[in-house]
Amino acid sequence: MNLWTPILAGSLLLQALLFSALSAQPHPRGLVTAAELPEIRARLTRAPYQAWYAQLLAEGQALPEQPPAGTDLYERAFRAGELATLYLLTEEPVWADQAFNWIEGVLTDSLYKDPTGFGLTRAMALQQLAVCYDFCYEGWTSRQRKQAQAALWEGLTSVHATMGFAANYSLASNWMGVRYGAVALAS
């Protein structure tokens, strides 16, 4: 037995324990927790949150149920994140459904699935998918969750492994902040 065997075994055990503890927590559990939601929702009735919420709601209501053909990956992903936020704040199923409609195209988009290029785009899409999954978990069907989980795993492992041929791989690069931030959130 070499020196690294017990270190690796201990690391794997620690990761398994942390993962099982986190996975037992109710959604949302990434950017906010379920315990914080009552206070967040209460703040929406007073300034300055009230104006922000009214604007977010108006933007959500103005969006079509499905993204129009030709809508680029960035817009689909960010709009899905906004719709997921509306579900989180209101618990109205229509917002979870609409968020899935908008993020579903991201799950199969060739830019998101191509590990050789567009690293920042892939990391951004991974980040927004993670937000949608966490915020809409309770509002999505089992099929929707499984579809999102598969795309999260695929994106997480791909973005963690490579940012594409044109990436700046310097640890001081802002690319790495986007990359590892998305990977951490998706984890």
**End-to-end Cα distance:** 31 Å
**How would the global form be characterised?**
globular
Mean pLDDT: 87
Beta-strand content bin: under 5%
Indicate the CATH class: Mainly Alpha
Low-confidence sequence ranges: none
Biggest β-sheet: count, sense, barrel? none
SSE pattern, N- to C-terminal:
HHHHHHHHH
* Count of extended strands: 0
- Would you give the CATH topology? Glycosyltransferase
Number of domains: 1
- Label the CATH architecture: Alpha/alpha barrel
CATH superfamily: Chondroitin AC/alginate lyase
Could you explain the architecture of this structure?
With 187 residues, the protein is mainly alpha-helical. It has one domain: Chondroitin AC/alginate lyase (Glycosyltransferase, Alpha/alpha barrel). It is 69% helix and 0% strand. It has 9 helices and no strands. The protein has helices at 4-23, 37-43, 49-62, 73-90, 93-107, 110-113, 119-136, 142-161, 174-186. Helix 4 packs antiparallel against helix 5 (93-107) and helix 5 (93-107) packs antiparallel against helix 7 (119-136). The chain is globular and about 55 Å long. The chain starts with a helix and ends with a helix. The mean pLDDT is 87.
